[in-house]
Amino acid sequence: MKVKEIMTTPVIHAHATTAIANLAELLGRHKISAVPITDDQGMVVGLVSEYDLLAKSGKTASDIMTPGVISVSEEADVEDVRFLLIERRIKRVPVMAGAQLVGIVSRADIVRLMALHWVCQVCGEPDHGDAAP
User: Fold this and answer.
1) Each residue of 105-132: pLDDT tens digit?
2) How far from each other are the two terminal CA atoms of the chain, in whole angstroms?
3) Predicted structure pTM score
């Protein structure tokens, strides 16, 4: 399965010049725990999480963001992203189509996918559905 099939869209994001108070309001209003930060060209340049808001000081997103964000292509396999989230101990990855931010995949998205899979008791193969037939 490809990331584009489970990613969250549209992506809530903020500009690097967004004020800290506005970032906090954005996270609260949308009930999200982090937001990708973009530059004037729409490129992802960082990520601001609840932790960044609590632990770092500054006036704008660029002051407190975590730079060097790991991102994936919308064509990436979900299993590869699951591995990445575990190995890098991160909670979410922006999804890119070229240089454009098109989605975000979080641990919760993958857990939801797991809840929709069941394993056939006869052959052991995973399948989609609410329950085994």
Assistant:
1) 999 999 888 877 665 666 766 665 544 4
2) 22
3) 0.80
Classify residue 133: in a domain, yes or no: no
- 98 inside domain: yes
For residue 37, the domain's CATH number is 3.10.580.10
Whole-number Å distance between alpha carbons of 99 and 58: 27
- Residues 6+ positions from 72 with CB-CB distance below 8 Å: 3, 80, 81, 84, 93, 94, 95, 96, 105
- The domain containing residue 110 runs over which residues? 3-128
108 inside domain? yes
Here the tokens at position 100 are 């454009």
Tens of pLDDT, residues 66-106: 998 999 999 999 999 999 999 999 999 999 998 889 999 99
Cis peptide before 10 (omega within 30 of 0): yes
- How many domains does the chain contain in total? 1
- Residue 61 CB partners (closer than 8 Å, separation 6+): 14, 15, 16, 17, 18, 20, 23, 37, 46, 48
